[in-house]
Write a structure and sequence with these properties.
The mean pLDDT is 96. It contains 3 helices and 7 strands. It has a single domain (10-169), classed as Peptide Deformylase (Alpha-Beta Complex). The chain starts with 23 loop residues before the first helix and ends with a helix. The protein is α+β, with helices and mostly antiparallel strands. The longest helix has 24 residues, at 146-169. It has a 5-stranded antiparallel beta sheet. A two-stranded antiparallel sheet has the order 4-5. 31% of the residues lie in helices and 25% in strands. The structure holds nickel (II) ion.
């Protein structure tokens, strides 16, 4: 299992670089990311969240097949937007509504380097955009206005302190 980096860690703010080698190490990384995602009970996880500032993210929506996106690029987004409450494994325990396009087209490579295109809507479109943001060092809270962002960060820090206290008592 991989460690998940949380808010405040520098790696979450890095601009990720492309993956050039489609080798066994990449396969191991994507498998480990999918295992970590499942363990954390999330639906998406991006490279920087496990300390790897590379253009890769994985998505596993319940009852769907797990997806690995290497060197992804969002090539089209719908004009129509929607609101959905997002969370992030790097900002655990807090959630906030975020406005995003409802549909996206993404081009990427799979773990063997084979290119594919997905036209997504619903939760998959939402998740792709959230994970794609991670690859340019962006978190969902950066899409909120300053006041809302502050509120989410304060709520997260408060939860974090409480969690640390609980741990200290054990
Ligand atoms: Ni996230």
């Amino acid at each position: 299992m991989l460690d998940i980096y949380t808010l405040g860690e520098e790696v979450l703010r890095e601009q990720c670089s492309d993956i050039k080698e489609f080798d066994e190490a990449l396969k191991m990384l994507s498998d480990a990311m999918l295992d970590t995602l499942e363990e954390a009970d999330g639906i998406g996880l991006a490279g920087p969240q496990v300390g790897v500032p590379k253009n890769i993210f994985v998505i596993h929506i319940r009852d769907e097949k797990p997806l690995v996106f290497v060197n992804p690029s969002i090539t089209a987004t719908s004009m129509e937007t929607g609101v959905y409450e997002e969370g992030c494994l790097s900002i655990p325990g807090v959630y906030h509504d975020v406005v995003r396009p409802l549909r996206v087209t993404v081009q990427a490579q799979d773990v063997t380097g084979k290119p594919f295109t997905i036209e997504a809507d619903g939760i998959l479109a939402r998740c792709i955009q959230h994970e794609y943001d991670h690859l340019s060092g962006k978190l969902y809270i950066d899409r909120l206005d300053e006041k809302e962002k502050e509120k989410v960060i304060r709520a997260y820090e408060k939860k974090n302190r409480a969690a640390r206290k609980r741990k200290a008592r054990v």
